[in-house]
Specification:
6-stranded mixed beta sheet, about 10% helix, about 40% strand, single chain, 4-stranded antiparallel beta sheet, Jelly Rolls, mainly beta
């Protein structure tokens, strides 16, 4: 069962955003979106992000302040996140499903990095593209899941991996250069898929 099938199984696929054009019409799947991503109480409650009920975790307008987070819906399940220092909301929390059939080591070309081992299985395409408009003195990406997950990031300056930083969950934090980063959230075992929360924060 792949990621798209898992989203259908847990009722999340229909809740992914559509891209909206400036006139308010939907174009379905690409470009800047007015994101009001309503996540199921099951998914967020499972990860401890919220009390029962549903919540729009991030919302952006077509014309916004540069410090707000911008999320764009892409083909499939993949999204682009655009951030500037002092972004809001902080922390920014996203929901997804980990895993794939490609080893993290095959994608990165290495077994270890300064931030941890390149372990587990990821998708062929990144789960997110993170665009940083400026350098960040500190930014942390952490994954929360009930399963064993891994994290791979490629971008300006190199490749970073993490596995079991906190219990069975990865995190990568530090100084970040301006530019575009590709992010994969993997699972320790092949063809194993876990609902996860990805948290981005400038708070150390």
């Amino acid at each position: 069962m792949g990621k798209r099938a898992m989203f259908r199984r847990f009722g999340l696929l229909s809740q992914l955003p559509l891209a909206l054009d400036p006139s308010g019409g939907s174009r379905g799947g690409m470009g800047l979106c007015h994101l009001s991503l309503r996540l199921s109480a099951w998914g967020l409650g499972l990860l401890g992000f919220m009390a029962p009920g549903s919540l729009a975790i991030a919302q952006t307008e077509p014309s916004i302040a540069p410090t707000q987070a911008i999320l764009s819906a892409q083909r499939g399940l993949f999204r682009t996140i655009t951030l500037s220092p002092r972004f809001e909301p902080d922390p920014l929390q996203l929901l997804g499903i980990s895993g794939g059939r490609v080893t993290a080591a095959a994608t990165t070309g290495r077994l270890n990095t300064e931030t941890g081992s390149c372990a587990g299985y990821i998708g062929r395409q990144p789960d997110y593209r993170l665009v940083l408009n400026q350098d960040f003195d500190y930014l942390n990406l952490s994954v929360t899941s009930l399963g064993d997950t891994t994290l791979v990031i490629q971008g300006p300056g190199g490749t970073w991996c993490s596995d079991d930083q906190t219990a069975q969950n990865p995190s990568i934090g530090g100084q970040w250069l301006q530019g575009t980063y590709e992010i994969w959230v993997g699972s320790a075992e092949e063809d194993t898929y876990w609902v996860y929360g990805l948290t981005l924060s400038e708070v150390e």
